[in-house]
Amino acid sequence: QVQLVESGGGLVQPGGSLRLSCAHSESILSIYSMGWYRQAPGKQRELVATITSGGSTNYADSVKGRFTISRDNAKNTVYLQMNSLKFEDTAVYYCTLTVLTGPSRYYTYWGPGTQVTVSS
User: Fold this and answer.
1) Using one digit for the tens of pLDDT, what is the confidence trace for 96-119?
2) How many CB atoms lie within 10 A of CB 99?
3) Nearest Cα to 109, choosing from 90, 93, 95?
4) Which H helix or E strand runs over 6?
5) 34 within 8 A of 72, measured Cβ to Cβ
6) Phi and psi dihedrals of 30, rounded to 5?
7) pLDDT one-digit tens code per residue, 38-92
8) What is the SS3 assignment for 30-80?
């Protein structure tokens, strides 16, 4: 069973930076992508950023130019560098790992989430 362990959340002032990390428990050959989602109080969960096994990235418009997703395959880890943080970035951030289970079939694992709070 794949397990995802997130770290790096916390309290930061507006304009500050945080780096989230997410490590998966084992080497997986069939990874399609990894990513980050977030859910703010009273709001639906939303995509933040994803990165495919080939290195292609995708970002929500609200974080483009401020957040950067990257991977270290040797460490089975994906990162989310968050700069110029805003109040509205406050949310629980969830790591995801999507694997290919068959032709055009995928399964997504979710981490337990890590809290990011932007406050002065």
Assistant:
1) 999 998 888 999 999 999 999 999
2) 19
3) 95
4) strand 4-7
5) no
6) -105, 30
7) 999 999 999 999 999 889 999 999 999 999 999 998 888 999 999 999 999 999 9
8) CEEEEEEEEECCCCCCEEEEEEECCCCEEECCCCCCCEEEEEEHHHCEEEE
